[in-house]
């Protein structure tokens, strides 16, 4: 599913989680082979907030610096440019996606759990090093970014998916609505942001929970599984923690931790989790936050959600009681600054504010709200003791919708509120129509993606077909040219396949093809694209891979197919595969020549003993 989904289409969606500003500039700079520590440091110093957070992280227990780090360049040297790049990426995504419009998605809980996972994986990889702990930290933080992407791009539909699903069923609903699930989308986004292949391979294995072998990727994937369990434990209440503990204890055995050592490790992780929450500005006490939200919902009254702002305590008390008695939910603030903070956090439907207040008066509050995205649609009523025409014109210019003169007549105020309520209802209807339109557009886009997926998928093997393979190879070739990265292709042909069809029939031939395709897809790396060209011919596109590395991949696939024969069938010969490999760098050769060379290498294997691999011998200067 990963390779068929068009990531460029998702990038074009509104509010897609993506790096911006300084973080984007750092990512682009670090991708350059000649980037220096000094250049990265100078770029960071332009952003004082980022500079401060990098210094705090470099001096934190998570990084484990042996001496205090006092300047940005030293921090970059000690952390490494890739770690700094990933840290800036994380901060950028958190800062721009801490809140959202998906009603079923808990943004605070998502980031809180993600931070707990990142702290845990950093500590786990420090105990047994499989990757650099500081780099694993970022993967833990962004390892499930696909969920946030779906919640951001298609908030209403994804909210319904979350409400209707539990566990594995959610993945199925996501694939049904979006032609991709959040695990696969996470891998696509991380690959697009330049995360190392071992990170992507290990993350994929950890999602599937099919970890086997003793290589570094398998060990890292097991560590990621353990870290996610600890992350779940950190954000759970005590009753749920008790239910999670047996599975944690069982998993801890793979990491040489007995029950006592595990509890100590978890306590240290939780302590560091709380500390780093301050660095990243992530709430780590999500259980209290959820309880507060539940309490607010229980006390909700019908009517409008109002904010009353006045520096007169008697006025606040009197009016709030009267407005509450009229069926509204009323919050109170004693000045404009507190009111602004309340509006940002709670988004009331209507604000009633006095004009004359200290330190921010009602006029300044109205101007600030109207200048912000979150305050443009709030209905504003001003309480004022003046009826001077010039003053009232100034108030309307500041953004008020209506006013009531003091002393306040409750009857008049309620009439003004009812007038505002009609406007608010119309706004809600327009917003609903807009959401319905967006929903229809998203559903249509999802249907188009499913149709495109069908058009680009081989029905028998569920692999991308020839049409997709050639288009994708052309895209990858263009990308390799831009970034001066290597690109390799593998041409594969099942040996003696025609005899299978001729002697046992096409049904058996289909079984052999399906079996071989599954082995190819399972053995290939997460960023490799496995395609069926037709008949018994397959193509594997290996981005950012030179010919020598691709040859190792080819041998691994050949060996796996030879060792894993299809059970229950009596074949004249075992199922084997011949593979031709060719690699390029930049524009030499182009993708068509690359396929031609790989095909010629495959031909030489077929002319020989078959069941082998061969790397094309290419002399770019001579065309061979």
What does this structure look like?
The protein folds into four domains: 18-96, no CATH class; 103-299, Hypothetical protein af1432, CATH 1.10.3210.10; 301-429, Response regulator (Rossmann fold), CATH 3.40.50; 466-615, Alpha-Beta Plaits. Strand 4 (379-384), helix 21 (389-398) and strand 5 form a beta-alpha-beta unit. The protein is α/β, with parallel strands linked by helices. It has helices at residues 7-11, 21-30, 37-45, 48-58, 72-79, 81-96, 107-127, 133-142, 145-153, 155-164, 168-178, 182-192, 197-208, 216-235, 238-252, 259-280, 286-298, 313-325, 336-346, 362-370, 389-398, 410-455, 466-483, 497-504, 506-523, 547-563, 591-607; strands at 305-309, 329-333, 350-354, 379-384, 402-405, 486-494, 529-534, 537-543, 577-585, 613-615. The protein has a five-stranded parallel β-sheet, with helices on both faces. The chain contains 27 helices and ten strands.
Rg, Cα atoms, Å:
30 Å
Total discrete domains: 4
CATH superfamily placement of the largest domain: Hypothetical protein af1432
> Which fold name is given in CATH as the topology of the largest domain?
Hypothetical protein af1432
Going across the biggest sheet, name each strand in turn. 2-1-3-4-5
């Amino acid at each position: 599913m990963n390779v068929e989904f068009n990531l460029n289409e998702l990038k074009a969606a509104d509010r897609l989680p993506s790096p911006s500003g300084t973080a984007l500039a750092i990512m682009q700079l670090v991708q350059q082979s000649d980037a220096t520590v000094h250049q990265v440091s100078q770029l960071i110093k332009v952003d004082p907030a980022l500079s401060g957070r990098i210094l705090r992280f470099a001096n934190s227990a998570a990084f484990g610096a042996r001496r205090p780090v006092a300047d940005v360049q030293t921090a970059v040297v000690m952390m490494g440019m890739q770690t700094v790049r990933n840290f800036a990426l994380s901060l950028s995504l958190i800062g721009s996606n801490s809140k959202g419009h998906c009603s079923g998605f808990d943004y605070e809980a998502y980031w809180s759990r993600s931070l707990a996972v990142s702290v845990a994986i950093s500590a786990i990889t420090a105990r047994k090093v499989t990757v650099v702990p500081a780099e694993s930290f970022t993967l833990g933080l962004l390892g499930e970014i696909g969920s946030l992407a779906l919640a951001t791009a298609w908030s209403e539909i994804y909210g319904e998916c979350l409400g209707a699903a539990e566990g594995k069923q959610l993945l199925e609903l996501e694939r049904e609505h979006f032609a991709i699930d959040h695990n696969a989308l996470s891998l696509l986004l991380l690959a697009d942001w330049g995360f190392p292949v071992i990170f992507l391979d290990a993350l994929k294995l950890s999602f599937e929970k099919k970890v086997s072998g003793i290589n570094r990727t398998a060990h890292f994937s097991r560590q990621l599984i353990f870290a996610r369990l600890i992350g779940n434990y950190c954000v759970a209440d005590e009753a749920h923690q008790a239910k999670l503990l047996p599975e944690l204890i069982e998993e801890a055995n793979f990491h040489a931790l007995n029950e006592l050592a595990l509890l100590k490790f978890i306590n240290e992780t939780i302590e560091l989790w709380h500390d780093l929450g301050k660095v990243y500005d992530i709430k780590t006490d999500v259980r209290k936050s959820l309880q507060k939200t539940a309490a607010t919902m229980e006390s909700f009254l019908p009517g409008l959600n109002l904010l009353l702002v006045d520096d007169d305590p008697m006025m606040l008390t009197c009016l709030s009681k009267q407005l509450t008695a009229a069926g509204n939910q009323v919050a109170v603030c004693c000045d404009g600054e507190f009111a602004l903070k309340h509006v940002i956090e709670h988004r009331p439907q209507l604000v009633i504010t006095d004009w004359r207040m200290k330190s921010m008066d009602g006029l300044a509050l109205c101007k600030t709200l109207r200048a912000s995205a979150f305050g443009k649609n709030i209905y504003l009523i001003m309480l004022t003791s003046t009826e001077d025409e010039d003053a009232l014109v100034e108030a309307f210019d500041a953004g008020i919708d209506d006013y009531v003169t003091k002393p306040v007549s409750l009857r008049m105020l309620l009439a003004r509120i009812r007038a505002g309520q009609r406007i608010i209802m119309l706004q809600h209807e327009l917003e609903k129509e807009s959401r319905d339109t967006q929903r229809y557009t998203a559903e249509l886009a999802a249907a188009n993606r499913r149709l495109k997926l069908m058009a680009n998928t081989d029905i028998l093997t569920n692999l991308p077909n020839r049409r997709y393979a050639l288009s994708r190879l052309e895209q990858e070739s263009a990308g390799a040219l831009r970034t001066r990265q290597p690109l390799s292709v593998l041409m594969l042909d099942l040996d003696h396949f025609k005899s299978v069809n001729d002697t046992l029939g096409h049904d058996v031939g289909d079984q052999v093809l399906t079996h071989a395709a599954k082995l190819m897809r399972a053995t290939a790396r997460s960023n490799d694209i496995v395609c069926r060209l037709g008949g018994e011919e397959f193509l594997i596109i290996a981005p950012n891979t030179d010919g020598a590395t691709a040859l190792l991949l080819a041998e691994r696939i050949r060996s796996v197919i030879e060792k894993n024969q299809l059970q229950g069938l009596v074949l004249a010969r075992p199922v084997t595969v011949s593979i031709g490999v060719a690699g390029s760098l930049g524009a030499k050769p182009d993708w068509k020549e690359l396929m031609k060379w790989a095909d010629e290498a495959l031909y030489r294997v077929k002319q020989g003993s078959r069941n082998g691999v061969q790397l094309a011998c290419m002399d770019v200067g001579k065309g061979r």
